[in-house]
């Protein structure tokens, strides 16, 4: 199920995941949906059952590199194609319920190979969203269309972060001579 391309204008940031470098973080847009592929995928359902963990809507992780965790079925295709290791299996760093990733800090030490998921409750976390080179390989290969790459959404990321400064055009420049 593809991500609604207008998600940053329709959803709210419900949290963020910080990178252990103390500088970078990615937003989580919610509140998620319970009709994504993860809710009907046999592997994912069985893995949740084996853990005795409740499967709940998780939302979209990342803004420029947006991964819909309700559609992510832990195929790991994104990991096999990404040239800069934007993604990691979040549970291989911190084995906590996915809903608790909100406002957590990850060092970026999780596994990054396609088949290194802890189990099928694991998710592809765009922990190095800031390193994305915009090659679109992950977006094209994801079997459930759970990933959307959109570098211009840096603006939404920065607005949500409160750091957005609109570039002033020369015509709006108060110091310009008329
Ligand atoms: S667009 Fe390319 S560089 Fe960016 S996260 Fe996807 S595979 Fe990695």
* CATH architecture verdict: 2-Layer Sandwich
What is the first-to-last residue Cα distance?
Answer: 52 Å
Number of extended strands: 8
Q: What is the overall number of helices?
A: 5
Q: Which cofactors or ions or other ligands sit in this model?
A: iron/sulfur cluster
Ranges where pLDDT stays below 50 over 5 or more residues in a row are 170-178
Q: What's the arrangement of strands in the largest beta sheet?
A: 6-1-2-3-4-8
Structural class: alpha+beta
> Based on CA inertia axes, which overall geometry fits?
globular
Report the sheet-strand fraction.
15-25%
> What does the main sheet amount to?
6 strands, mixed
Number of domains: 1
- Mean pLDDT value: 93
CATH class category? Alpha Beta
Elements, N to C (H/E): HEEHEEHEEEHEH
Radius of gyration over all CA atoms, rounded? 17 Å
CATH topology: Alpha-Beta Plaits
Instruction: Provide the helix percentage.
Output: 10-25%
Record the SSE blueprint:
Elements: H1 7-10, E1 12-19, E2 25-30, H2 42-51, E3 60-61, E4 65-68, H3 77-81, E5 88-89, E6 105-106, E7 124-125, H4 137-141, E8 147-149, H5 154-161
Parallel strand pairs: 1-6
Antiparallel strand pairs: 1-2, 2-3, 3-4, 4-8, 5-7
The structure holds iron/sulfur cluster (SF4).
């Amino acid at each position: 199920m593809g991500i609604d391309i207008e998600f940053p204008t329709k959803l709210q940031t419900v949290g963020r995941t910080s990178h252990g470098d103390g500088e970078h973080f990615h937003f989580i847009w919610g509140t998620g949906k319970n009709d994504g592929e993860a809710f009907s995928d046999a592997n994912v359902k069985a893995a949740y059952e084996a853990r005795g963990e409740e499967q709940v809507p998780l939302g979209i992780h990342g803004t420029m590199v947006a991964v819909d965790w309700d559609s992510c079925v832990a195929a790991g295709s994104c990991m096999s194609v990404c040239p800069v290791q934007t993604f990691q299996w979040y549970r291989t760093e911190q084995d906590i319920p996915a809903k608790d990733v909100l406002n957590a800090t990850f060092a970026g030490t999780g596994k990054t190979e396609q088949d290194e998921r802890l189990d099928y409750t694991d998710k592809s976390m765009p922990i190095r969203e800031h390193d994305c080179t915009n090659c679109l390989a992950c977006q094209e290969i994801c079997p459930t269309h759970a990933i959307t790459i959109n570098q211009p959404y840096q603006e939404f990321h920065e607005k949500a972060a409160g750091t957005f400064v609109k570039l002033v055009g020369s015509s709006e420049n108060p110091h310009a001579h008329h």
